Amino acid sequence: MNREDLLLQFETRRHFFSRCGVGLGRLALLSLLGDDGLFAQTAPANPMDAKPGHFPAKAKNVIYLFMAGAPSQFELYDFKPALQKYNHQPVPDSLMAGKRFAFMDSFAKDKPKLLGTSRNFKQHGRGGAWVSDLLPHIAGVSDEIAFLKGVSTENFNHGPAKCFVNSGSTRFGRPSMGSWITYGIGSESTDLPGFVVLQSGPRGPRGGAALWASGFLPTAYQGVPFRSGGDPILDLSRPPGISTEAQQETIQAIRDLNLSEMAQTGDSEIATRIASYEMAYKMQSSGPDLIDFGKESNQTLEMYGAEPGKSSYANNCLLARRLVERGVRFVQLYHTDWDHHTDLGQPLDQVAREVDQPTAALISDLKQRGLLDHTLVIWGGEFGRTPMGEVRESGKAGRNHHIDAFTLWMAGGGVKPGQTIGETDEFGFSPVGDRMDIHDFHATMLRLLGLDHTRLTIKVQGRDFRLTDVSGRVVEKVIA
Questions:
Q1: Which among 337, 333, 381 has a CA at the least distance from the CA of 178?
Q2: Domain ranges for the chain
Q3: Is the Cα dihedral 78, 84, 90, 94 positive or negative?
Q4: Can you give the pTM of this predicted structure?
Q5: What CA–CA distance (Å, rounded) separates 299 from 296?
Q6: How far is residue 153's CA from residue 170's CA, in Å, rounded to a whole number?
Q7: Which of 127, 265, 284, 287 makes an SS bond possible with 418, Cβ 3.0 to 4.6 Å?
Q8: Beta strands 129-132; 463-466: pairing state
Q9: Spatial CA neighbour of 372 closest among 57, 67, 63, 146
Q10: String of DSSP letters for 189-208
Q11: CA distances, 153 to each of 48, 211, 437 (Å)
């Protein structure tokens, strides 16, 4: 190719994209992709189309309320009178023997001392669940909840531990839960992504986008972060001065180019690209409607503590309900600031107050609307906290990381409610009775969605990978 031809090719490409009037982040396909639409004959299969699982599902949607930073179970759900009795006393030798500790070097000089809680606990509901006075609203819906105690994990550093809970591996690069689920059963929403991520709190979760990535699954299955005000996604709206007709012509041309490339290469990622353009176009109308709380009653807004146009956990809980109402398969809320090494007082009061009312409102609202039966709600962090206290630079008592025993809970979506599964020893250090690790938790969640965790696999570099790696068992007591 001579110099003149190269210049002509460059000018033609530059002319094409300059006349598009939209950036790549704003491109969208038309709603003409319906059964009788213009592109019906050539449209590739949408990778997010709903598909059956391995057996009948009890849950159709998931809302995962992820408390980033690791909430202290001893201040919230795991009441231990022995900690009160032996408050500020050294840990008994019988407890120390053969146990794992996070950050063993911190105990090299001084024997750790047990730390009782200053919170008041009561039993609630017919199930008699122990919940502290930090969470009075969640206590009020405890009969809808199955509390899972004595859950264990594998890593006591925040980043790898968050990765493990979200992907089944401490190594970044594996598919996240929402990606595995949408890969397995797709989504029932035609105008919103199947996997949506909502964030709140003063800091983003350590690990960021890697926590909702699709890993080696097609990128169609990665989580899509939404904002709770304005456009859900930046640059979603059609730019000023660009007509519907101009956008149609641009998108049709780009679609034709993608279909041509797909025919030549067979690359499945091109189908993802085409589907994403179509979704972006549909969201130009569905997105603003989704985050418009004007159609919600004042009673509903007050129940959640939501304020239209504000970015908050309360707004995200209401938004999560609106998302599953519209068929979105997996919604994950990340709320930060649960890392309390240095102060279990006011900082814990604040973050508990931020999540308590909206979380309980979400469960109640889902139930009132007939959505809780098929929506699985999950609450928990990446690990728990030690029964021993520690004093750092603040001079106030906090708790260190603990991976052997902590508390998660599940509600709705085929869960048998009003029960506590598993328990911990008298000091809350180790699980006794029913034990559950993160792979068991994943296997149980997938089972509720109609998926066999041993069959939900993808072959990569000669090996079959799955969310539960090479372990995991379904905890049957969870299932109604």
A1: 333
A2: 23-52+236-290, 60-229+308-478
A3: negative
A4: 0.85
A5: 8
A6: 10
A7: 127
A8: unpaired
A9: 63
A10: -SSS-SEEEEEESSSPPTTG
A11: 31, 16, 6
| Cα 225 from Cα 261, distance rounded (Å) | 29
The values of phi and psi at residue 196, to 5°, are -120, 140
Percent of the chain with pLDDT over 90: 62
Contact 281, 30 (CB under 8 A): yes
Q: How far apart are CA 466 and CA 344, in angstroms?
A: 38
**Through-space distance between the first and last CA atoms of the chain, rounded to whole angstroms:** 69
Q: In the prediction, which pLDDT does 201 show?
A: 85
DSSP string for 318-348 = HHHHHHHHTT-SEEEEEE-----SS-SSHHH
Which superfamily, per CATH, for 60-229+308-478?
Alkaline Phosphatase, subunit A (3.40.720.10)
Strands 423-424 and 431-432: antiparallel
Q: Give yes or no for residue 425 having a pLDDT over 90.
A: yes
- Please tell me the distance from the alpha carbon of residue 217 to that of residue 227, in angstroms, as a whole number: 25
Q: What is the pLDDT of residues 122-181, one digit of tens each?
A: 999 999 999 999 999 999 999 999 999 999 999 999 999 999 999 999 999 999 999 999
What's the length of the chain? 480
Tokens of 76: 């919230």
Closest CA to 67 of 155, 162, 148: 162
